[in-house]
Target: Pyridine nucleotide-disulfide oxidoreductase
Amino acid sequence: MRSMGVEEPIALISDEAHAPYERPPLSKALLHGATDMARIMLRSPAVFDKLDLVRLQGDPVTALDPAAGSLRTQSGRELHFTNAVLATGAVARTLPGLRGQGVYAVRNADDSLALHAALVPGSRLLVVGGGYLGLEAASTAAKMGVEVIVLEVADCIMPGKVSAPTAERFADMHRGAGILLVHDIAVKEWRHEGGQWHARLADGRAFSAPSVLVAIGAAANTALAEQAGLACQGGVVIDAYCRTSAPNVYAIGDCAIGYRPELRRALRVESVQNAMAQARIAAAAIAGKAPAPVRVPTFWSEQQGRRLQMAGMVDPMRPCRDEIIDTPRGWMVERYQDERLVAVEAVDSPADFVRAVQRLSAAQPVPA
Model:
């Protein structure tokens, strides 16, 4: 907003005591201990001072009134606004009977630091969920000398996120690192006894560990939006300018759900790139300027020392044809639906990925 010429006072309000920080390292470098909070801060204190922000940390907003243009924080502080932007993110999904001592999630820095303390070399970790987050954390834990078992209800890892060839190759890498992948099975019972969590599977097998990471996805944090009477459907509903059902309230990032022309339906997109793109769109709308063109959505993950980059979206309701292309250091997968390029995957192939994204952008439908 400042870069677009907005001069009015801006307040940045957070429920966390930490200054704003990067989220991707939470399941990787911060969890491993290879970095610390000081190194993952998004901006230095001097930058925040230059932006002239009112910063309220550790004091979440508990009431929002769009009609009155006012909000109240947990400490009782009241602020008035012309525009408000909700960037409340998402909260980790939980499982019945699996909570309490030894059960972890990774959604914020404190979560990551708590799990790091539990990952003692020679110990064991059960990871529930074989998606990006679960596999990144599993990879990190294995490097720390922890025995890791991943439980995934689907018949492959990263289900619905990547192509079958990429899923299979990463599965081989994780197994090669000593990680046990248990697919296509449901946990029938969780029991905590003797300082251990015991998981009994539907086929009779059982696994136990002192620590369990639940990584089965996240739900949009819509509590404040719902309190304010905003339209919510699996996320805070937004239009093309990131406006909610209240014209002076915007929503961006993991908490927001908007129409995706490439899939012809509303979707909530969890990615750094999407959060940054929507931040630019909302800022432009507030500043009264035209937003930048919408870019192809991109995603990335780091597992077992390999960098996986993805762009575009595949409609899970339609057939998909995958073409595998080996590169000098990794591989690429081009994904086609109705003979049109809709998504690409690249492993350790950044230059090839950039060229593929350019082709993908050219193949995208122009939204009405």
About this structure: The radius of gyration is 22 Å.
